[in-house]
Amino acid sequence: MKKFFIAMLSVLLLSTGVKAQSLASGVNDIYAERFQSAKATFEKLLAANPSDIPATYWLGQTYIEMEDVPGARNVYEKGLTATNNAPLLQVGLGQVELIENKVNEARQHFESAITMTGGKKGNDPEILNAVGRAIANVYTDKEKKGDINYAIQKLEEASLAKTKDNVLLADIYVNLGNAYRKARPGENGGVAFTAYKKAIELNPNFAPAYYQLSRLFNTQHNWEMYETYLNDAVSKDPRFAPGYYDLSYLKMGKQDLVAAEDFARKFAESSDADPQNEYLRASILFAQKNYDQAISLAKSIDTRLGAKTRARVYKLLAYSYVDKKDTLTARQYIDQYFAKVKPEEVIALDYKLKADIYSGIPGQEEVVFNSYLEGVKADTVLENKVELLKKGAEFFKNRGQREKEGDLLAYLLEIKPNFTINEMFDTGRAYYFGKAYTKSRDLFLKFQEKYPAEPYGYEWAFNNAKILDTVKVDSIAIPDALKLLQFSEKDSTKFKKQYISATSFIAVYYANIAKDKDKAIEYLKKWQAADPVNRENIQKNIDILSKSTSGNSQSSSSTRATAQNQGNNSGG
Q1: What pTM, to 2 d.p., does this model score?
Q2: Residue 533 above 80 pLDDT?
Q3: Is the pLDDT assigned to residue 553 strictly greater than 50?
Q4: Which stretch of DSSP H or E encloses residue 451?
Q5: What span, in angstroms and rounded, lies between the C-alpha atoms of 83 and 262?
Q6: Is 150 within 8 Å of 169 (Cβ atoms)?
Q7: Which CATH code of 3.40.1620.10, 3.10.180.10, 1.25.40.10, 1.10.10.10 fits the domain covering 213-273?
Q8: At 378, is the pLDDT very low, low, confident or very high (cuts 50, 70, 90)?
Q9: String of DSSP letters for 127-149
Q10: Intervals of CATH 1.25.40.10 along the chain
Q11: Where does residue 53 fall: left (phi above 0), alpha (psi -120 to 50 degrees), or beta otherwise?
Q12: Counting runs of H as helices and runs of E as strands, what totals does the chain give?
């Protein structure tokens, strides 16, 4: 009897170990994006034990990754019935509810699961991790479903749990790093980096931690570190498909197409059989400039998958047709791309592509303009935002649409903490030549405040005021002329052009509008002292005004003509 008990115990321990190994294998398949394989593993475990809570939870996660939210809901609802409302499955259902934008219901399930598993030693780190993962995976900067700070709070609590399960702790830190980045895109890279490195310290073979580090450096365009961590990911797990996929793309960007094809082959070997995987081969054909073949393969993927075709296939088709100079067909596919793509998958270059396509279609300037703005919002790196705005501004400048150029440059001034004096000047000047005089003057008034020792703010505010103030003249044009004169009097030789522009305008105003001959003569003399070329003509006007009692029409027209002859000519 004793021998029989020992034998049965051995079988039980062996079966438990096999089950745990199978579960871990399925979870690893999820991380490596082999969702069909993961699904098969968890379904097999559940066939043996319908009440298997971890297998049920991860099967639901697989359905979520496969974008089958109704399927995930069905898994969790059945599992909750079979397990008497297991806390882990409540978290899973809460994640489904978050995706469905049922935020309050989700929070209730999260809180209930945490409460049910809490004890004297604190809350269960596995449940806390599942809650944090649920929110961090669903939350995006555009669709703020859930409370990302709540996720961080729970994951930080989980990271402090007294457990020797380093595999769990490593997963907690990866989810924490993801949550940090989503909470403050472009700003929380430092704390996210620390979290990912901690995960590696706890579990040195955890490929997802290296992969998340690579994605962190990708957003910073640090291609050396990006490649380093991708190589680390696939070295720790030689079947980590996402790593091979990204390495193939990286090599395409470097025009190392031999290496790109090698990584594409390894990606295919490490992935489930799926027509979607042929997209990488189509991308390499595009990189090789075999546009017709790339188009043919991409269309084949679309035909076979239909509604399940990923948005990236349409983007590849759009790029291919752009390079074939067929923007009308490209428009069809870029529109399909944006209609289907997930908000979190969009990058700034996608909007640049859309702008390029629509810029070749007459009458689509608004779409082009908005595409540049959306591209800036989609990127988290300041340098990329600035570069995209400058490209957009250059496009509209070349089209002669200077106000739109100014609008894009004005947005650049808003987002760039330390913009240059030239960037501010170019913005105001673009508005001026776009005949957006109010915007231009307002910009140059701010220029005066920021750069009070430079003449441009005073000069160009005055240039705009002369055009705007055509009725009364003295409402803004004269005050701006006086400010310009006051500035240029500091050094009338250095700022001779500005000094003459101000004094001549004021002189004409007093002679023709205000009918004040004494003031007119005063400013004519200031003008004369600085403008020896026109000295004689100016003197004639002084003599006429001096002899006149009220400033006749002869003096008025003569003074105006002289001012116009020497007036401020502004270049574009």
Answers
A1: 0.71
A2: yes
A3: no
A4: none
A5: 46
A6: no
A7: 1.25.40.10
A8: confident
A9: HHHHHHHHHHHH--SSS--S-HH
A10: 213-273, 440-566
A11: alpha
A12: 30, 0
